[in-house]
Amino acid sequence: MNKEQNTNAESFEQCLKCTVCTVYCPMVAVNPDYPGPKQAGPDGERYRLKNPVFYDDALDLCLNCKRCEVACPSNVKIGDIIQSARLKYSSKKPKLRDFILANTDIMGTMASTMAPVVNFTLGLKPVKAVMDGVLAVDHHRTFPKYAGQRFETWFKRYALKKQEEYTKKVSYFHGCYANYNNPKLAKDFVKIMNAIGYGVNLLEKEKCCGVALISNGFKNQAIKQANLNLGSIRKAVGRGEPILTTSSTCTFTMRDEYAHILELDNSDVRSSIALATKFIFELVDAGKVKLVFKDDYRKRIAYHTPCHMEKLGWAIYSTSLVKMIPGVDFNMLDSQCCGIAGTYGFKKEHYEDSQKIGESLFRQIRDLNLDMVATDCETCKWQIEMSTGVQVENPISIIADALDVEATQKANR
Ligand code: SF4
Ligand code: SF4
Question: 3-89 is classed in which CATH architecture?
Fold first, then answer.
């Protein structure tokens, strides 16, 4: 067993007590009540294993950003240890608010059937005040808009047949956000893949990756959904198709959280799950595919590295692709956590910390006079757009908008 494969329980023994993790923890910087990664993680685990009474409710403050793990020189799975301890020892029962925030498929299915009404209603001040008072969803939050037509519906109606024209195929895990809120992102993915000569299949069955269920304490439901996704992924991998996503968090969850937090064996398919930008960049880099861009696309863009992208170490693929667009004036943000951490920043008790954590990032963005920010995480998009007023797009949508589709198709025939 190598260092990467060790279990949470084994990894805490590797702690050198150097406290580097504490320096990189965004929560320690804004909230003195948080014990910090070393104490909440490896140090606390020693005590909790002796007696669960040592579990500290302050672990609820952890964002699960994994920045501590990226910084740790000894490969201690600090974030995993904390997340697993919360699921195992916390006596707090999830609230109705947590159920609503975590069940993205249920909410998305209901909301998208009457999207204009839902979008209008969620933006009303009195509704926000009621949600704040009754559900403890902070009234400052802007909810992402729902689309009237889900991506899956569009795909079956307008794109499915065309995919038969391609011999090379990939499978797409679209995730909740692209399905219910931003179908354009998923359509952009299909547009790029088709232009470079790949057909797109959807998975036989897909549920939310489960990241919000895990962070809100619904482990059993997360395991159920993960098993359903893994079943469909295995079938696609069996057909020789890589599984591509357009969300860094969905990718990270299915590759790493399924094994480390939900204790599911995904080792047979883990390496087949990748972010679309990685897959496309590697094809371009190997000279197997050519992207041709429009001459008149001109944008000043800065890239924000989401925490889970930092953990994957894959920002280089997204940034390299965006930099290939000749008309892009590219800036790399010195990114810390944006503070939203999925559903965390929606909660009234965490809103203030969430905004304090993101402030240095927001300041950089405001100072750069940008046309847009690029990032691979949908919740970072919500946080940055709400806090800076600057438009945020996924690199896939930026590439799709800048792409000369006809010329790219020709170049890849
Ligand atoms: S960075 Fe790693 S080794 Fe250092 S104190 Fe934190 S967990 Fe221990
Ligand atoms: S996961 Fe993030 S918030 Fe939690 S201890 Fe690590 S660095 Fe801090």
Answer: Orthogonal Bundle (1.10)
